[in-house]
Design goal:
The structure is a single chain. This protein is mainly α and 326 residues long. The protein has two domains: 139 residues, no CATH class; 181 residues, no CATH class. The strands form two sheets. The protein has a two-stranded antiparallel ribbon. A two-stranded antiparallel ribbon has the order 2-3. Helix 8 crosses helix 10. The longest helix has 32 residues. The protein is elongated, with a radius of gyration of 37 Å.
Amino acid sequence: MKRFISLALAALLLLPVDVFAGKGGGGGRSFSGGGRSSFSPPRPSVRPSVAPRPSITPRPSVAPKPSVAPKPAAGRSFSGGSVVKPSPSPSKGNVSPSVKPKSVTIDMKAIRDQGTVQSREAYKASLNKGTTPKPSYTNSGGKTINIDPKDKKVESIRNMDSHKYSTRETRSTTIYKNYYNRPPLFNPGSNFADPFNMWFFMWLMEKSSNDRATWVYHHKDQMDPERYKQLVGKDAELEAKIRKLEKEGVKKDPNYTPAGIDPDLQYDDDFVDAAINPHKEVKSSSSDDESGGWGGFCCWSIVIILLVGVVIWAMFVLEIDFDDFN
């Protein structure tokens, strides 16, 4: 019976750490071979070697008992048995890379009114592009505009590199600063349900009539009808030139951009931010992970240490012969 209990305890101690870790595989803590939990090589018995017990009533001679404290403390070794060392609490810096950070959506409208241009651009540079664009956004006039993720102009914006996105405000100011103090091009109070930048049209009106007609021809289907109507009222030749392009069968390009301007500056900030859908990666609290994988491991380690201590104490100090219970 003693030999059976000894072998059972040895098998229990040799179980993989992952059995007690609470979270297996990638969800828990990783442990190096250099050991937060150090187990000695397996040995055939917890007790020192004992001469074979003959099948007679008198007890055979037993090798001298090792000197053992009445109750083993955590981390203390016993001659002839396995050593279990309690693992120190993991530091926050040892979190496994498999713990994915949380992704937080950013309110870019609020960001635009904070700090300096440089601080805003530095902040935008730290953001990550969302996996998909937003399904819709609300423009500055309060209108909700839906976004088709398969739209060519949406794909064009999402293909823009992070540096272009973070420096958009500076690039926009460089192109449009001369128009900020001019009277508006469109009627006051106009609120168009399209993604275009109002400053872009002021820039476009200074180009040739052919350049204007070509741009409107390619983007007419994306423009708010009211915007198109007001634009025609300011350019008498516009509609005639558009009809000419239609008769020539020019294929429309939804991403057409006139020379001298970056493609994203044709669109307003609300549309660009919704297409990019920026997120901030925030590290999740390690408390949840510690209470799962790491906490479970520590609890089981304590249980094993106590179990080994009780059995050894009973066998060596109280000299209980478990065969007597058979």
